[in-house]
Specification:
Blueprint (H helix, E strand, L loop, with lengths): L3 H18 L8 E5 L5 H9 L4 E4 L2 H10 L6 E4 L8 H7 L2 E5 L2 H10 L7 E6 L16 H8 L5 E7 L8 H17 L9 E3 L6 H6 L4 E4 L1 H4 L4
Parallel strand pairs: 1-2, 1-8, 2-3, 3-4, 4-5, 5-6, 6-7
Helix pairs in contact: 4-5
The protein binds pyridoxal-5'-phosphate.
Amino acid sequence: MTDIKENLKKVGERVARAARKVNRCPRSIRVMAVTKRHSIDAIQSAAAAGQRDFGENFLQEAAEKIENLQDSGLVWHFIGRIQSNKTRSIAQLFDWVHTVDRLKIAQRLSEQRPEDHPRLNICLQVNVASDQVKGGVSPEHVSELVEEVRSLPKLRLRGLMCIPPQSDVLDEQRGYFARVRSLFTELASDQKDWDTLSMGMSGDLESAVFEGSTFVRIGTAIFGPRT
Ligand SMILES: *Cc1c(COP(=O)(O)O)cnc(C)c1O
């Protein structure tokens, strides 16, 4: 049995230790529990241990979980690839979307966000390594997309997100995160609500925290391997 409560504590300690190494306040970093291919029971165990932010990659799987857990005060983050025929449901169900990488998707999310919902929190995904198989806007085109997205009325643009290539080499991990951080800083001027760097997973959260992450997205280290 995976001890979810114990794992959450360990992740919290990893974040805090990394933060202190670079003189950051540990509370400036939020942990998102990534629950793709994990059960509703697992989510409930994490929620019972005080976890509030949850990330999901696949709409259909997420919709079922979110409906089941209505009224439990959880915050839902969409972190998967977005197909344009899924934007309506995403705009209805989620509090945050971390993986916006083109204007068309952003426009649809804004148009389809229900009137009585608060603005949808958005991060733009940056393809920091120009990885062919990964989503994300190229670093050269981020600033253009920022300008376009910030004018959309039902969105609240919060910052940038990335999924760099996996590497066990700390300096390599840090290099990618540092590049996204410097883009984030360049784009920050007169940007209201620009406060989120969504980066770091189970294998590289320390490097991400060293480079300024404010949201780490953690699956395996909390819930064990996915089946
Ligand atoms: C699955 C996933 C995670 C969590 O990955 P782990 O290595 O299990 O911590 C984080 N971010 C995204 C975008 C994911 O798809």
